[in-house]
Amino acid sequence: MVTTWNRIKNSDFIYHFLRDPVACVSFMILLVLVVSSFAAPIIAPHDPYNPATIDIMDSELPPAWNAEGTAKFLLGTDDMGRDLLSTMLYGMRISIIIGLGAVALQAFLGIVIGLLSGYIKRLDTILMRIADVQLSFSTYMIAIFIGAIFQMMFGVANYEQIAAPLLILIIGLAEWPQYARTVRASVLAEKKKEYVEAARVIGLSNIRIMWRHILPNTLSPVLVISTVQVANAIMSEAALSFLGLGMPMTKPSLGSLITAGFEYIFSGSWWITILPGILLVLLILVINLLGDWVRDYLNPKLYKG
Fold first, then answer.
1. Domain presence at residue 12
2. Dihedral of the CA atoms 88, 251, 225, 236 (nearest 10)?
3. Which among 221, 29, 24 is positioned nearest to 111, based on CA atoms?
4. What integer pLDDT is reported at residue 1 of this predicted model?
5. pLDDT (tens digit, 9 = 90+) per residue, 225-258?
6. Calpha distance 241→238 (Å, rounded)
7. What domain range includes position 35?
8. Is 57 contained in some domain?
9. The CATH number of the domain where 92 resides is what?
10. 140-178 burial, b for 16+ CB within 10 Å, e for fewer?
11. pLDDT digits (tens, 9 = 90+) for 117-144
12. What is the spatial distance between Cα 201 and Cα 194, in angstroms, rounded to a whole number?
């Protein structure tokens, strides 16, 4: 009896994946980073969210390998006296959640709008012009505008409580046109094929044809975009944090940690910025490498086997 696991293990995808060392190493590193971030409450040496465990006298301690460092704080401490290793693990979890949440929102909006635009001709011009207008504004411009409004409406203290969902909303709303354009192009090609005509002949509704028949055949490019967009969303959050519109320092992301330590980098406390920066670069790099492999695998013109 062939089980689901055996079908997956013997699939063409796994066969080529296991024979690509770059993809395998990138996946293993990404798996370690993701598991470490979500297991932070268990494996982190300290709780950076608990003020009772933080001593301001421990601020700006160097990493343990430095002569002035201590084994209690392996990667040193930040300017608030928090263990940098623990804060990086918690911060990476926030960055990943924001990246995944923003991409989920982008994909949902882009797929719905792309399906409607490609399948229903009278909506095509309207929806694509909205996408063109959206693309004329950068993510950061929208973030500055919306962030300033929310800070004014709710105050800085209350804004900190809604910072994560707000960043997901901002980044998601700013990047959906890429999905919409890609899905629209696929729908325009698919709706002319025989299986769509057959579905119309037997009386299936337009909604059923779009979601049950056309959509599954447009998911390959959506998957490729999603792998790249997760990295882009994480970078966008880091950039917004650098502008002061990201996560608050009470619950920092990797971008917030880099920003917080930037003013100390030339005073000798380089680890506050450099170490989170290295972790952020590593996270973005492995995601992009996996995205490149998925793109090549799903494109027969690029993938050589």
1. no
2. -100
3. 221
4. 45
5. 888 888 888 888 888 887 777 777 777 888 888 8
6. 5
7. 19-44+65-298
8. no
9. 1.10.3720.10
10. bebbbebbeebbeeeeeeebbeebbebbbbbbbbbbbbb
11. 888 888 888 888 888 888 787 777 777 7
12. 10
